[in-house]
């Protein structure tokens, strides 16, 4: 099993979610996060005083998937979340040792 | 005793139209204080929103009580000191006011209209000390400052001879060094805005800068609130200025139009400066320009022509837009620009009367004209004298009050509380519940035939 984590632009969330559902992913966890990469932040002006805002709002989307699906899921996310402009985000994959469905106590792939 | 002065003062029956307008205007002006709470509250960070709003709100509590007890009497009671202060015991508890008639309105209508001015004057000061004041000390300050600084200033400026009492204040009636020439301050450029601005500067100096001032970005957390607040202030300000006619007629109507003109021009003035200097029209700039224009036209609304009001507005908008940057250069933390907007705007309005006062104004043919209308330097000198006297008086006395409170009760929260946020430490509340991730999203359709083929199990979720 793999944990796929994606950092994407907030307005892309609905599209990515739909694409993942279409692919067949049955669940995901989403959080509002802030961060920056090579694009850095942006600047804002209040009453003439300029501020740089380093941390840009992003969405972190996480889904645990079967090994066979990981590459395809990454492709779906990248294809959907891509705008081609700076700040599109990142996707990474890490292995998972075990997973348990809390309601039934099922373990492993059956619990995904 | 005042009963004799009351009997002399006015016709026996109030005019119902005038009374209705003044009562409605008083309610409009009261609404400005919650408007100010929104205007200020949106400009601070999420950790001190409620404290910022409460500093305005508490003024409705403390000053509302103090006004009925001794405030009204101190501002408008019989004056035996030659224009400096009314006798606080004369109308203590509004004794003798309920049945009186002042001008064409009942005594209590005048009391109502004036208390809402006192409330907002005090609330305005709080913008200078955002994020760091002890709430208890601020609450005590509101009472002490109103009693020692605002009520006397209101007496000087708003108490006309033979209106509520035989002898009124020196600025309105040309006493002291004014030699018989009263200053024009229709609705409180000196008593309220210069006064609150100078007091804000004094408190900002007593309390010192916020942790991280000039280093941390202290961005306004919600400019939507700021714009709603500015809208409410503009709405209420029609009561503030046009209500100050204390009658429902041509004077009030003319003042209403001037209040619109100056405010509109000030918004444009501020925005043009921002566009040229920073490259953008900002919404905070539009809201701030509105307030700067309202402040500047407050003293001038009765004594300038509609064209004059546009000039007052555009000058105030442009100059205040530049003035709000001063705190970074001079190094004082007037957090929400009480000095840059209220002190500077109040001075602009009060002084421009000396140039622009005209017989073509709502005040009409009795007006002493300003320099540009052939009236010479007389009125300009009077305006400057009144403005700078109030400025210095307010700054010095407020500094002393603030310093004494700081040395006794402590005016500033400790560093850890300030870093954590005064909403939690002073009020045990937070403005926003950050527990909910999303407010909702589009309802998606689950596909009948997923592309993925490894799915072994139907999920009942």
UniProtKB/TrEMBL annotation, chain A:
GO terms (molecular function) for this protein are: ATP binding; enzyme regulator activity
Domain of life of the source: Bacteria
- Which BP terms from GO are recorded? regulation of nitrogen utilization
Q: Which UniProt keywords apply?
A: Nucleotide-binding, Phosphoprotein, Transcription, Transcription regulation
Coiled coil residues, start to end: none
Q: Give TM regions.
A: none
GO CC terms in record: cytosol
Q: Which SUPFAM superfamilies match?
A: GlnB-like (SSF54913)
| Pfam families (alphabetical) | P-II
Q: Which residues carry this modification: O-UMP-tyrosine?
A: 51
Its family? Belongs to the P(II) protein family.
Q: How does it assemble?
A: Homotrimer.
Name of the protein in its database record: Nitrogen regulatory protein P-II
């Amino acid at each position: 099993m793999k944990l796929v984590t994606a950092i994407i632009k907030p307005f892309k969330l609905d599209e990515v979610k739909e694409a993942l559902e279409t692919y067949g992913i049955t669940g995901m966890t989403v959080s509002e996060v802030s961060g920056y990469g090579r694009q850095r932040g942006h600047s804002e002006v209040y009453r003439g005083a300029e501020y740089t805002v380093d941390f840009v709002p992003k969405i972190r989307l996480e889904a645990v998937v079967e090994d066979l699906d990981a590459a395809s899921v990454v492709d779906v996310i990248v294809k959907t979340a891509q705008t081609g402009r700076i700040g599109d985000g990142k996707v990474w994959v890490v292995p998972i040792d075990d997973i348990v469905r809390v309601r039934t106590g099922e373990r492993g792939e059956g619990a995904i | 005793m005042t009963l004799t002065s009351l009997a002399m003062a006015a016709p026996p029956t109030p005019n119902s139209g005038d009374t209705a307008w003044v009562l409605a205007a008083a309610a409009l002006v009261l609404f400005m204080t919650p408007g100010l709470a929104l205007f200020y509250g949106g400009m601070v960070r999420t950790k001190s929103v409620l404290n910022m709003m409460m500093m305005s709100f508490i003024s409705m509590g403390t000053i509302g009580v103090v006004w009925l007890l001794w405030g009204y009497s101190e501002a408008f009671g019989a004056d035996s000191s030659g224009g400096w202060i009314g006798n606080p015991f004369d109308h203590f508890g509004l004794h003798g006011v309920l049945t009186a008639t002042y001008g064409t309105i009942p005594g209590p209508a005048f009391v109502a209209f004036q208390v809402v001015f006192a409330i907002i004057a005090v609330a305005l000061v709080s913008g200078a000390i955002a994020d760091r004041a002890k709430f208890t000390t601020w609450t005590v300050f509101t009472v002490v400052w109103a009693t020692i600084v605002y009520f006397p200033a209101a007496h000087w400026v708003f108490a006309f001879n033979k209106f509520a009492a035989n002898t009124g204040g020196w600025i309105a009636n040309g006493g002291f060094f004014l030699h018989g020439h009263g200053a024009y301050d229709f609705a409180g450029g000196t008593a309220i805005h210069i006064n609150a601005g100078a007091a804000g500067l004094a408190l900002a100096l007593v309390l010192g800068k916020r942790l991280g001032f000039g280093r941390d970005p202290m961005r306004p957390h919600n400019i939507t609130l700021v714009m709603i607040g500015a809208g409410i202030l503009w709405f209420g300000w029609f009561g503030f200025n046009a209500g100050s006619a204390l009658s429902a007629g041509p004077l009030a109507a003319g003042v209403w139009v001037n209040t619109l003109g100056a405010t509109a021009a000030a918004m444009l003035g501020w925005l043009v400066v921002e566009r040229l200097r920073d490259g953008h029209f900002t919404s905070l700039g539009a809201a701030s320009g509105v307030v700067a224009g309202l402040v500047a036209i407050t003293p001038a609304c009765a004594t300038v022509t509609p064209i004059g009001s546009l000039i007052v507005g555009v000058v105030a908008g442009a100059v205040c837009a530049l003035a709000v940057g001063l705190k970074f250069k001079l190094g004082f933390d007037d957090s929400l620009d009480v000095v840059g907007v209220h002190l500077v705007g109040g001075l602009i309005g009060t002084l421009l009367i000396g140039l622009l006062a005209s017989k073509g104004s709502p005040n009409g043919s009795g007006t002493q004209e300003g320099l540009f209308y052939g009236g010479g330097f007389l009125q300009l000198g009077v305006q400057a004298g009144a403005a700078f006297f109030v400025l210095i008086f307010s700054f010095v006395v407020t500094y002393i009050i603030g310093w004494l409170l700081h040395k006794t009760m402590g005016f500033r929260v400790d560093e850890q509380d300030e870093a954590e946020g005064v909403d939690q430490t002073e009020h045990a509340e937070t403005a926003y519940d950050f527990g909910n991730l999303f407010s909702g999203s589009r309802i998606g359709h689950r596909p009948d035939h997923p592309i993925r083929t490894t799915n072994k199990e139907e999920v009942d979720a």
